[in-house]
Amino acid sequence: MRKQNLKLRSFVTIAMLSSISFVLMLLNFPLPWFPVFLQIDFSDVPALIAAITMGPIAGILVELIKNILDWIFSGAPTGVPVGHMANFMTGILFVLPVHYIYKKFSSVTGLIVGLVIGTVTMSVGMSVLNYYAFLPMYTYFLGWGSFDMYETIVLGILPFNIVKGIMLMVIAVLLFRTMKVWIDNQRAQYLS
Fold it and tell me: How far apart are the first and last CA of the chain?
């Protein structure tokens, strides 16, 4: 019976965190010195909480559900959810390293190290994925003319993801300090 209750509680928690993540995704905003299609949002924080407390699959599910919800409610300019796929991959590349490092070193220091590695992984990984997959898809579906992909990545996407990672890092550390007892209790229940 306890296992069934925990399973139901996991589903409810993932749904709740996905909903919060979706709302946070709607509250996006541009930074003036970056390309207009790059928007800052804090929707990866609930996925990070899910991954830390319930495991990597929970974090991935929160990222997936929030992007599906956003696609359903906001649509996609290309007709194909290229931006949502990119956002999904960005979230995974950020959240998973944090989970694995925090799992090994469950402290504020472990969290900070995980967040730094998650930021680097997200920044480099999304630069590569944008070069080989996402920017070519945007070019094809939106009929963008020729543009310098290398310059767009080096001067736009890479520094944007570093700034985004730093902003997420600050918020995650502040939340962690106030929610540490709750996070530890949740981890003990889900990951035992």
Answer: 16
